[in-house]
Design brief:
Order of helices and strands: HEHEEHEHEHHEEHEEHEHEHH
Helix content: 40-55%
Strand content: 15-25%
Number of strands: 11
Oligomer: single chain
Distance between the termini: 106 Å
Structural class: alpha/beta
């Protein structure tokens, strides 16, 4: 009986050893590709930037994403380019595409999540919370929304403090080059920034982006012209902008800027962007065309 008892003792020892063994290591979080500046800004703000292995061209304007590989224009992604980065999850704005490429990525087993990009504060809050849920960081998402609301409350208080004075008229211009300029009407990110700052969109009668025309600019009579910061050199600064149709006929306007990513999408930096616009459009602001 002793050999049998020895065997049972060995089995018991092995069972005890297995029951006290370390649990299996948790599965590594998938690497990410982010598409759309508001989405990319949110992922980094949530502390998941170390997982990002690819971003679209517009997101590359973010300082924190400057060293990340790019996957091209957000509406013209390549399945091969995205898959070559070894990511398991793509998070993108609703503009990400084309749809056939997104479907191809899904068929390879890659998770693809897209989020609405409406230019409203409510949509910005919802997107932050939704991305935080996808990343498994809901607490960080709630904190980020709280910070956004705090920044916006400061901007609203600042706007209210000058109530009763004539609000500045701001003309937002999207420039892809000196000869390709569009003005931003209602339903755009720029319009939301302008309204949150307490100013007036000088072309509020227009919807979306429209070509810059001399007649429309003269009728708008802007006090300020808003540009993405990255476009200033492209148009030759305030001096070059002053030579454009209509703006050459409007006197006294000044140039103000926000970061490119804040002109393209409403991310967690929205409150800071509004504050920057308020700084530039304050009565004591400097610079611009005369």
């Amino acid at each position: 009986m002793r050999p049998l008892a020895s065997k049972w003792g060995l089995f018991a020892a092995l069972f005890a050893l297995a029951s006290h063994a370390a649990p299996p290591a948790p599965k590594a979080a998938p690497k990410l590709v982010t598409v759309g500046p508001a989405v990319t800004q949110t992922v980094f703000a949530l502390g998941a930037g170390d997982r990002v292995v690819g971003v679209d061209d517009s997101s590359a304007a973010l300082p924190e994403a400057a060293k990340v590989r790019t996957v091209g224009y957000q509406r013209a992604l390549s399945a091969e380019g995205v898959l070559s980065l070894g990511a398991g999850l793509l998070l993108g704005s609703a503009e990400a595409g084309p749809p056939a490429v997104l479907e191809q990525l899904k068929q390879t087993g890659m998770r693809v999540e897209t989020f609405a990009n409406e230019p409203t504060v409510e949509a910005a809050r919802a997107r932050i919370q939704a991305i935080a849920e996808r990343l498994g960081t809901p607490d960080q998402g709630r904190a980020l929304v709280a910070k956004l609301d705090e920044d916006l409350a400061k901007a609203a208080g600042r706007a209210a403090s000058v109530k009763g004075t004539k609000p500045p008229r701001i003309l937002a211009v999207y420039a892809r080059g000196a000869g390709a300029m569009m003005v931003a009407g209602t339903g755009t990110v720029a319009d939301t920034l302008i309204r949150l700052s307490g100013a007036v969109n000088a072309v509020a009668g227009l919807q979306g982006y429209k070509p810059l025309s001399s007649e429309a600019v003269v009728a708008a009579a802007p006090d300020f012209v808003l540009l993405p910061a990255g476009s200033v050199a492209t148009v030759g600064g305030a001096e070059g902008l002053a030579k454009q149709p209509g703006l050459s006929q409007v006197k006294g306007w000044r140039l103000v800027t926000v970061d490119d990513v804040d002109f393209m999408g409403l991310g967690p930096g929205l409150g800071r962007a509004v504050g920057r616009l308020q700084d530039g459009a304050a009565p004591a602001g400097k610079g611009g065309a005369k």
